[in-house]
Structures are given as structure tokens and as C-alpha cells.
Design a protein that fits this description.
The chain has two helices and nine strands. The protein is an alpha+beta fold and 136 residues long. The termini are far apart.
Length: 136
């Protein structure tokens, strides 16, 4: 009986850890299909996504690596990062901003559809500075 309890507990703990990891690393292209319309470009360095968030529409919890945002239209979003209070962000067409890796959600609290290009940076060894050559 004790062995069955231990196995059950271990199984439940494993499932919880798998689920909690999945929640933390949600791909916006999979969980926010209402807003993340398409991948414009993807290669080994970046992924560029076209985003449209209608008035009163919400984008569920999702994660990004370091990324930057380019506003294609004016708009107003309420953005809530994991573990932080909501922040109001107002965009003007042509605005650009850099955002460090985050897990967040968003809601369009304005009267217009917010249109953005979101470019995620893929950090890999190829992007690191080359090693200095030593002379012999």
C-alpha cells in the first residue's frame, strides 16, 4: 500500500511539473490564434509575427524570448507580465520597443485594432561574438 502511494504521488508530481512547464512556455502562435495571424519570416536568428488585436479582445498567457515590437497602428493595450501588476501601453504607428524575455497576457483596451510586428530573437551560439584568434 505504501509503495502504491509513493508511485501515485510521484506520478502526480511528474504530471504537475510537465503541466507547469507547458504553461510557462506557451507559444503565442499556438495559444493566441485570435491575435497572432501569421509568421512573416522565420530563420535560425529571428521569428517575425504579424499581430492584430481587436478592441476588447484578449491575448492569453504566452511567452517570448527577447523580442522587439514595431507598431503598425495606434492603439492601447493593458499588458500583464507574470508576477507583475498590469501596465497600460499606448502605441503610435512607427513606435518600436525592445522587450526582454517574458511571459505575459494582453488586452486591447482602446477603440481601434492594434496592429504590430513582433520579432523574437533566437539566441544561439552562432550569434555570439567569434573567439579571438591567438598568434603563435
Amino acid at each position: 500500500m505504501k509503495t502504491v502511494k509513493m508511485i501515485s504521488t510521484a506520478l502526480l508530481l511528474s504530471l504537475f511539473l510537465m503541466f507547469s512547464t507547458a504553461v510557462r512556455a506557451q507559444d503565442p502562435m499556438k495559444v493566441a490564434t485570435n491575435a497572432y495571424k501569421r509568421v512573416v519570416l522565420e530563420n535560425d536568428k529571428v521569428r517575425v509575427m504579424e499581430v492584430e488585436i481587436a478592441p476588447n479582445d484578449s491575448v492569453p498567457w504566452h511567452s517570448h524570448p527577447d523580442h522587439f515590437i514595431y507598431a503598425l497602428s495606434d492603439g492601447k493595450l493593458e499588458i500583464t507580465a507574470k508576477g507583475a501588476a498590469p501596465v497600460i501601453s499606448e502605441f503610435k504607428a512607427g513606435d518600436a520597443m525592445f522587450v526582454e524575455a517574458t511571459t505575459h497576457m494582453a488586452k486591447n483596451i482602446g477603440d481601434t485594432t492594434v496592429k504590430l510586428l513582433v520579432t523574437e530573437l533566437k539566441h544561439n551560439k552562432k550569434m555570439m561574438a567569434p573567439k579571438a584568434k591567438t598568434k603563435m
